[in-house]
Write a structure and sequence with these properties.
The structure holds two protein chains of two kinds. Chain A is mainly β. Chain A has one domain: Electron Transport, Fmn-binding Protein, Chain A (Pnp Oxidase, Chain A, Roll), CATH 2.30.110.10. Chain A has four helices and 15 strands. The model of chain A has no long low-confidence stretch (mean pLDDT 94). In chain B, the strands form four sheets. Chain B has a seven-stranded antiparallel sheet. Chain B has a three-stranded antiparallel sheet with strand order 2-14-15, with no helix packed on it. Chain B is mostly beta strands. Chain B has four helices and 15 strands. At the A-B interface, strand 1, strand 2, strand 5, strand 6 and helix 2 of A face strand 1, strand 2, strand 5, strand 6 and helix 2 of B.
Chain lengths: 191, 190
């Protein structure tokens, strides 16, 4: 394959698309974030990249808590909207008709319509120039029961979507089993 | 919607599936990761969670450089394999038939067969429990020409892999187009 050099670019596909919730001056606000990832492990952590001027970051600094809500594809317009307007200028909860609820943390607003809600405590802030990387420790996970299969989260039912470059795409069909199909490269070692 | 509480879980979907390349004791190695994300864009930065026992961390410590390589769906077996075996015991480059090339950095091996290759230098590494969160600065990006449309990367040509969950862990393709970013939400604007 002929490769083209494009200079340094933040290309890591597929990006998730999530709604980060924060309580800013006592009011819930949600921002769309694609630069987010799992930091995994124990304790389970997630990382999100936010521009320093973002309104939600103000709320995270105020309370040291935030939420990560995974929207399903039905909410793609609302998600896009939450990435275009600032909570400083508008009430996104009202505009998007989000039903807000709270779990363990009283300052991490969660969205009823989103199938997955993570409540997080901010544990690290790292200044990376254009963005502040916020690392959150997940303290509770709320999952819609209709998105479970055999009591396990089922991405086919969650129907999250991906962003980039510039476009939203659905998640397609499952085509291989993880931690298994790779053994076809070289037989699984016998114990 | 009725909800169930699962305790703390890192369930932020969808997750990408990438290969992280390092040179360890002079030899290129690749390992599979789903715990990663873009951190910022000026400069472009990336975060990867690397379990402290992983061989990849040794290479990152040795050279302060690594690569992030996006495989397409046709490399699914190779991508899964690189997460099943350790470079301590296997030569994954040989087992997978990868053609390795280098760009600007001499310790960030890249894979010819993969449509997107990022070269990274180590910016920061910090402790998050059993993982080290590795922050890399992207210094160069290579995209296969056949994956470009009007000179821009096209996700439907790159065909990246989603790591997902169901009754068993699985891989998914990226599906149909849903709408244009910074546009479809406009109808909600008053």
């Amino acid at each position: 394959m002929n490769k083209k050099k494009l200079g340094p670019l933040p290309m890591l596909w597929p990006h998730p698309t999530v709604l980060v919730g924060a309580e800013v001056d006592g009011r819930p606000d949600f921002a769309a974030v694609a630069w987010a990832g799992v930091v995994a492990g124990s304790p389970p952590c997630v990382a999100i990249g936010l521009q320093p001027h973002r309104y939600s970051l103000k709320g995270i600094y105020q309370n040291m808590t935030f939420s990560v809500n995974v929207p399903s594809r039905e909410l793609v317009n609302e998600t896009d909207y939450c990435g275009m307007v600032s909570g400083a200028d508008t009430d996104k909860v009202k505009d998007c008709k989000f039903k807000v609820f709270y779990g363990t943390l009283k300052t991490a607003p969660l969205i009823e319509q989103c199938p997955i809600n993570l409540e997080c405590e901010a544990i690290h802030f790292l200044n990376l120039g254009s963005h502040i990387l916020v690392v959150g420790k997940v303290v509770e996970t709320h999952f819609s029961e209709d998105c479970l299969t055999d009591d396990r989260p089922d991405i086919a039912k969650v129907q999250p979507f991906t962003f980039g470059p510039g476009k939203y795409h659905a998640i397609g069909e499952a085509f291989a089993e993880a931690f298994k199909c790779g053994w076809e490269i070289k037989g699984k070692p016998k114990k | 919607m009725a909800r169930k509480e699962f305790g703390p879980q890192p369930w932020l979907f969808p997750n990408p599936t990438v290969l992280v390349g390092t040179v360890i004791d002079g030899k290129p190695n690749f390992a599979t990761f789903a715990g990663c994300g873009i951190a910022g864009d000026k400069p472009p930065t990336i975060s990867i969670a690397v379990h402290r026992q992983r061989y990849t961390l040794k290479g990152i410590r040795q050279n302060k450089e690594f690569s992030v390589v996006i495989p397409s769906v046709n490399l699914i077996k190779e991508a899964d394999y690189c997460g099943l075996v350790s470079g301590v015991r296997s030569d994954k480059v040989r087992d997978c038939g990868f053609t390795v090339f280098y760009g600007t950095l001499k310790s960030a091996p890249l894979i010819e067969q993969c449509p997107v290759n990022l070269e990274c230098t180590l910016l920061k590494r910090f402790d998050v429990g059993v993982h080290d969160l590795v922050i890399g600065k992207i210094v160069q990006t290579y995209v296969s020409e056949e994956c470009l449309t009007d000179g821009k990367p096209d996700i439907m040509k790159i065909k990246p892999i989603v790591f997902s969950m169901g009754s068993v862990p699985r891989y998914n393709a990226v599906g149909e187009y849903l709408g244009q970013g910074y546009h479809i939400g406009k109808e909600l604007k008053k």
